[in-house]
Amino acid sequence: MNESSFKSCPLCNENNSIECIGDIYGKWSRKYFTLLRCKVCFYAYLADPLICYNQIYNEDYYSGFGADPLVNYLHELENPRDSVRRFEWDGIIKILLDLVGSENSKRWLDYGCGNGCLVREGISRGWNTIGYDEGWITNMAQSRGIPILNKNELDNLENQFDIITAIEVFEHLVDPVSELKKIRKLIKKGGVLFFTTGNARPYHNNLLNWSYASIPEVHVGFFEPKTIATALEKAGFKPYWPGYLPGYSNIIKFKILKVMRYKHEPLWAKTMPWHVLSRLVDAYYGVTRHPVGIAI
After folding, report:
1. Could you give the CA distance from residue 14 to residue 16 in angstroms, rounded to a whole number?
2. What is the pTM of this model?
3. Which has the least CB within 10 A, 80, 161, 214, 267?
């Protein structure tokens, strides 16, 4: 391990600010990973993340047999209306309507779109939507007619988008600030970056027992609201806290059903008062406490 890992924060660059939280065992890789955290911005990250991406993000991973047992992107791609993920798509689109108003003429890029299902959902509702990602599942999505850019195509689109979403992307990144700077180049001034990632704040004193951190092969960085606000500012965004918007009810519903390992909506979920339950869940887990980024 590089000794400098313990001296300077890779997110806020504060010197002599890094503490060692402990080790996390990766069941898929069968190895331990060291978790560090900055005492200033609270960015927590793996000192020794795996970077063999082709081996991690392969067909097994996207089919539900890889490092993260809670994902099955192939099923969602092939069964969009039958998947519980549809609640997340619906919630995101409701939130975007609150944040940017009418979708007419606005260009929306889903950054790190994976199987492209959010892109497909946006298009089906009249949004001018396109995705960006690379990998096995991306090829599967493109074969089904979902428009997804590759890196070379994306590099030619500076200042082209009014909206960029990054759904469960930042926790996978070894260098989130650099990635945010790339996103900032793509978005117009005044444009909106809406993202989701786990909130590490409720687990500040118990980070090693957070289920979100229990799959170190794919989740390599963890953010508190203060942390992600710092990263946004360093990349040219102004953090904005819209609070609990109506679409979060559906996003939280999806997260609950996913953690419970439901692929399809069970009968009991159809009768639950999700507008109440989601508020209670949010009060504890702080799903809505991360900011939105406004390009400046």
Report:
1. 7
2. 0.96
3. 267
* pLDDT tops 50 at residue 142: yes
Helix (H, G, I), strand (E, B) or coil at 39: coil
73 neighbors 115 (Cβ within 8 angstroms): yes
* Domains annotated on the chain, with CATH: 52-196+228-295 (3.40.50.150)
d(CA 202, CA 181): 28
H or E element that contains 262:
none
Using DSSP's 3-state secondary structure scheme, residue 166 falls into strand
User: What order do you get walking across the sheet with 148-149 strand by strand?
Assistant: 148-149, 128-132, 107-111, 161-167, 187-196, 292-295, 237-240
Rg of the Cα atoms in the chain: 18
Mean pLDDT, to the nearest integer, of 208-237?
Answer: 97
pLDDT at residue number 2: 46
Looking at the predicted structure, is the pLDDT value of residue 1 above 60? no
Three-state DSSP at 65 gives coil
The single-letter DSSP state of residue 25 is E
Beta-strand relationship, 221-222 and 44-46: antiparallel
Residue type, 192: V
Average pLDDT of the chain is 95
Residue in 160, 159, 158 with CA at minimum distance from that of residue 128 = 160
